Amino acid sequence: MVFLLFWSAFPSYPQADLIPAARDTAVAERYAQWAKTAIDEGRWKEALAALERASDFADVSSDISYLLALARSHEGIPRAAVLEALNMAFSTDNWLLYQVEDARFLRIENLIAVRAYSEALSELSRVSKGPKEATLTLKILTASRPAEFRPFMKETLDRYPRECGPVRLFFGFLKNMDAAGINPGSEDLELLELILRRLSLLIQDDAELAWMAAPFMRDTEEAKRLVMAYRAANASRVESLPAALKLGVVGEETALVELFAPATQPLDMALFDEVWALLRREEARASFRRNLSVYSGVLIEDADRDGFPETYAEYFEGMLTKSIYNAVQDGIPELTVFFEAGVAQRALVLIPPEGGAIGPSSRKEARIQWERYPAVLQVELEGAVFIPRPLDLHFSPVLFTELWGSGVLFPRRDALSPPLTRRALVSQSLRVERPSLEFRGGIEVVELNQGIPIRAREYVGDLMVSETEFLRGRPLFQKVDLDFDGWMETARRFSRNYREMELEELWDYDREFDYIIGIGE
């Protein structure tokens, strides 16, 4: 049945009279070839959906797992899932369409994204020397070992004089230095001079190097000529606007039209900063503010300038609708905030683990609802709803910055805001509500005082069917209505040997009884 569904999903795929067993390598190869073709044609989502269903072939074809990792990476699936598929490819070690180095390079790129630089360098030592290996090494060094970056860049330029990847990285390196207020040193200027001598040849392979090089060229007329030639022959990328505007290739009005044209890709806050700084006329600045005030799209911020944004903010006509924060860049947001009319209403936040547990799997997602930001109305965590006193629990994970006097707010994660923990939730909750552990469809309400339970009641509909009394946080005595007649005729005494529990666990009490009696017996 599984294979019949697979064949029917792809009518263009050749049908077979007999469906071979799942472990048939030939079928796996045909499946991988179909997925590769779909990816080559840009049908990433279709390929991903098919590859996710191809687990039957993963243990006979490394190509299947590699293509799955590639599709997951392209579609923004968390990096742990990408690495998991790559590990399966390495384990199977049966390649036809690709080579093991293709998978190693993809693994290295994902390790760089999550700043696992030492592990990425270790993986690089297992691949062949070449332009791609050198470019990835430079990417690691620029982020983690800047003192080693320059000598390795010189070595790379000597070894691969026609490669454009290292040159792009070098221009990015200089741009980051400029943003940090650092002037290029003598080594930087020597490398720059070498690259500029080769620029006319390099541009033939990568036209974007024209506008990337322009800010660092002494000959402004030559820089202007290169940018004009780039714009005349290519569909200009919006990132080239600062160079074109600074050199007078475009005017301020044209630059703003291009900047605020309907965009399918997120726009970097650093780009807006650059364009704003280059606007000289107040009319142009007023136009910038007006356009921004009705902006619909996504703004991103890459705080450490490593090429992987940590903050995403979505807007509709100048109003915030959603913001996403992924500081560790693993594809699993630590915080997602939803806005209505620009005001924070709800959030999804990863709660840090208690008791020293580590790793992404130990983090649990909480659903927060604000009564009036930053005052919390309630928090749902692992099926339980924590309800604090009105305006008592405050959680303000983001700060808002107005952008250039436009009235548009950009949210940034507040590094000084304490994390929301289980202990904080319990200690500041008036009560905790959760599904009843004993009565199907019932609700249990545990009343708390400074995190210590004092009473628990269970309801089925409007009928209270149990009541538990606590003493110093430990359950003592429970009355239960087992036949739903409105009378609690059963009494239970909790075990005297009740285990010791942490504060944040007291409300989630064990149901261990010394004895159960019928009241009146």
List the topology elements.
Elements: H1 2-9, H2 25-40, H3 44-52, H4 62-74, H5 79-92, H6 100-113, H7 117-124, H8 131-144, H9 146-159, H10 165-179, H11 186-205, H12 209-213, H13 220-233, H14 241-246, H15 252-259, E1 267-268, H16 269-278, H17 282-293, E2 297-301, E3 311-316, E4 319-325, E5 335-340, E6 343-351, E7 364-372, E8 375-381, E9 384-388, E10 398-402, E11 409-413, H18 422-427, E12 429-435, E13 443-449, E14 452-460, E15 463-471, E16 474-480, E17 490-494, E18 513-518
Parallel strand pairs: 1-2
Antiparallel strand pairs: 2-3, 3-4, 4-5, 5-6, 6-7, 7-8, 8-9, 9-12, 10-11, 12-13, 13-14, 14-15, 15-16, 16-17, 17-18
Helix pairs in contact: 2-3, 2-4, 3-4, 4-5, 4-6, 5-6, 6-7, 6-8, 7-8, 8-9, 8-10, 9-11
Structural summary, described in words:
This protein is α+β, with helices and mostly antiparallel strands and 521 residues long. It has helices at 2-9, 25-40, 44-52, 62-74, 79-92, 100-113, 117-124, 131-144, 146-159, 165-179, 186-205, 209-213, 220-233, 241-246, 252-259, 269-278, 282-293, 422-427; strands spanning 267-268, 297-301, 311-316, 319-325, 335-340, 343-351, 364-372, 375-381, 384-388, 398-402, 409-413, 429-435, 443-449, 452-460, 463-471, 474-480, 490-494, 513-518. The strands form 2 sheets. The protein has a 16-stranded mixed sheet with strand order 1-2-3-4-5-6-7-8-9-12-13-14-15-16-17-18. It has a two-stranded antiparallel ribbon with strand order 10-11. The protein is globular, with a radius of gyration of 30 Å. Residues 1-22 have low confidence and may be disordered.
